[in-house]
Design goal:
Chain lengths: 176, 176
DNA sequence: CGATTATTAGTACGATCGTTCAAAGAAATC
DNA sequence: GATTTCTTTGAACGATCGTACTAATAATCG
């Protein structure tokens, strides 16, 4: 008594397309009709797939976490400065700028609707913190995470790779 | 040939009320009718006062900058560590948490709509950076700003004042 | 006083929002 | 082949959105 099986590949493909649309057009413009038009489907298809807009948003932020937060780990046994440098090079990658802009857009909205984004807020600090704390103490891990996030914010705002790069180098050098 | 004079006090009062509403209800819920109802006026009053919703948003983010970014300056001649500590104590003030949540909500949206928020993005880093750079070099100023912003993000997310406070202390101590 | 401008209100318009409903084709099991 | 489940569609609903228009009242200048 099993009907047509779930097409997981199609579901992942749809979610990735939604995230891509959000990266391009902004988190605030994530509405059924323009999104569906851009994806070449009807709004009903998206509604059926995600259930509701809030559930779709939850799926998007969860995928974002997978793409961004999980990128932090693991350290592969190298020492902390080398580990932090590698993470920095990843998060400062210009190809990732769109993803991080969306990340901070979701983050900002999450801070103003904590109950709706409880999942996001529960992991956005705790997960990378645990990764950094494995190679240092909790205070240093907190500092590393905060500094990296702040530097990325600066980079996304000003685009000044030279100045921000110097600051990142100085920070990493001081970790030794 | 001058008619009734502009009531600047009333205008400031209205803008402050709008910012207060945004702090409470979130940046995403900033729409004419619920806002007007909460403020005890009609939507038309707000439209006439601010011109359009986009102009109102611009006014809100400008007021936010005045409240938050300007709070960073000045250093009053004390050395950098003492200056940074004083700024940290201000931005970590629990009474300011609502304002900073709104700040990061606006910031996140600004990153995804740079042309609309050009004013905000043009000042959000440059202004405090100039304040910190007056007492240090550009690299250190960049690092200080990024770290403070990141620590505030952590604090708003987790509320873990102890852990974040330890990290802030360690950072400031390392500035000497 | 008359002219002018600011402030506030009431009404209404078109657009877009999220969501629901009925229905058709596709892919699996029995 | 009948049944079941997944996928997708088109049409439509009520609600809310930003905004324009008209008008009344208040405060200033000439």
């Amino acid at each position: 008594m099993a009907g047509r099986p779930v097409d997981q590949q199609r579901r992942d493909e749809l979610l990735d397309a939604v995230v891509g649309y959000a990266v391009e057009h902004g988190f605030a413009e994530l509405t059924w009709r323009p999104l569906a038009t851009a994806l070449g489907v009807t709004p009903t298809t998206l509604v059926h797939r995600f259930g509701s807009k809030e559930q779709m948003i939850q799926a998007v932020q969860q995928r974002l976490r997978e793409r961004i937060i999980t990128e932090t780990a693991p350290s592969d046994g190298v020492d902390l400065p080398a580990y932090v440098r590698r993470v920095w090079e990843r998060v400062a990658d210009p190809d990732r700028a769109g993803e991080f802009r969306l990340f901070f857009a979701v983050y900002g909205q999450a801070l103003q609707a904590p109950e709706t984004f409880a999942d996001f807020l529960g992991h956005v600090v705790a997960d990378p913190l645990a990764a950094f704390a494995a190679d240092s103490d909790e205070g240093t891990a907190t500092l590393v995470l905060a500094t990296l996030r702040g530097l990325v914010l600066d980079l996304l705002t000003t685009g000044d790779r030279d100045r921000v790069g110097v600051a990142a180098d100085a920070f990493i050098a001081r970790l030794r």
